[in-house]
Design goal:
Elements: H1 3-13, H2 18-25, H3 29-36, H4 46-60, H5 64-75, H6 83-87, E1 91-93, H7 103-126, E2 162-168, E3 172-177, E4 183-189, E5 194-199, E6 203-207, E7 213-217, E8 220-223, E9 232-236
Parallel strand pairs: 1-9
Antiparallel strand pairs: 2-5, 2-7, 3-4, 3-6, 6-9, 7-8
Length: 248
C-alpha cells in the first residue's frame, strides 16, 4: 500500500474529512488530496512532503517515521536533496536592515569642528586692536559665546554571533544553508518546544510553517514570520540589527 493510500484509508477509518485534517495540520486541502493520490508536486519539494506526511500521519493515527521511510524508499533519502531543490519553491522574504550610524564619519566631522574652533580662537585672540578680557574683571567675558561641542557618542557594539531562537506553537520544519547555497542541516521542531541555534556567519533559514512559530533573532522578537503552511526563506547575518515585532 502506498503512502497516499495508507493516509487516505487511516483518515477514513478515523472518521475525518480532508477539511478536518487540513484544519488540524494547517495544510491546504488541495495538498492533502494530492498526497492521498500519490501526487506530491504541490508540496514544494521532498523536504516539505516529508513534513506534511508526518503531520497528517499524527492526525490520522499512523506512525509518521514508517511512512517517511517508505516515501524515502521511493523518492530518495534526504541526503540526496540539493540546496536548489529544497529552497527554490519558497518565496524569499528579505528583511530590511536598520543601518547604524557610521561613527567613523561622525568622529572625523567632530574633530574637524574642534580643530576649526581652535584655529578661530587662536586667530581671534591674536588679532591686533581687539581687547582681551582679563580674568577676574568680568567673569562672563572670559567664556566663549560658542557652545561646547557634544562628546562623540560611543560606538555601537555588535555581537559577532548570530543567535536564532524558535518557539514552536505547532510542528515546524526548518533548514539552514550558507549564503552561497551549501546546505548545513535540517531540523524538525515539535509543538511546545524551543530551539536555539548560533552561527558565526550569515545563513538562509527555510521555515516550513512560519505561522506556527515565534522567532527571535539577535534578541529581536520577530513574532510569526509568515502564514500557516506557507514556506518562507529568511536571510540573517551576525550583528545585524533587525526590526522586532511587538508581542504586547
Amino acid at each position: 500500500m502506498s503512502v497516499g493510500d495508507a493516509l487516505a484509508q487511516a483518515r477514513s477509518q478515523a472518521g475525518l474529512t480532508i477539511a478536518d485534517v487540513s484544519q488540524q495540520t494547517c495544510i491546504r486541502e488541495t495538498i492533502i488530496r494530492g498526497i492521498e493520490r500519490g501526487d506530491f508536486s504541490a508540496c514544494g519539494g521532498d523536504f516539505y512532503a516529508r513534513g506534511h506526511i508526518r503531520s497528517i500521519a499524527r492526525v490520522v493515527g499512523l506512525d509518521p517515521d514508517e511512512l517517511v521511510r517508505e516515501y524515502d524508499a521511493i523518492h530518495g533519502a534526504p541526503s540526496a536533496i540539493t540546496a536548489a531543490e529544497a529552497f527554490e519553491p519558497s518565496t524569499p522574504i528579505r528583511l530590511k536592515e536598520r543601518r547604524s550610524a557610521n561613527w567613523s564619519v561622525v568622529m572625523v566631522i567632530v574633530l574637524a569642528l574642534l580643530l576649526g574652533y581652535g584655529v578661530f580662537r587662536l586667530v581671534n585672540h591674536g588679532s591686533p586692536g581687539r581687547p582681551v578680557a582679563s580674568s577676574g574683571t568680568h567673569p562672563g567675558a572670559a567664556k566663549s559665546p560658542a557652545s561646547t561641542p557634544s562628546p562623540t557618542p560611543p560606538a555601537v557594539h555588535h555581537s559577532h554571533w548570530l543567535v536564532i531562537r524558535l518557539t514552536a506553537i505547532q510542528d515546524c520544519w526548518v533548514g539552514f544553508t550558507k549564503p552561497h547555497g551549501q546546505p548545513l542541516f535540517q531540523a524538525y521542531v515539535v509543538s511546545g518546544s524551543t530551539r536555539t541555534w548560533r552561527f558565526r556567519h550569515a545563513v538562509s533559514m527555510q521555515i516550513g510553517n512560519p505561522g506556527g512559530i515565534v522567532l527571535t533573532v539577535n534578541g529581536k522578537d520577530l513574532g510569526r514570520p509568515g502564514a500557516y503552511g506557507q514556506p518562507v526563506t529568511l536571510n540573517f547575518g551576525p550583528g545585524r540589527r533587525l526590526p522586532g515585532t511587538s508581542t504586547g
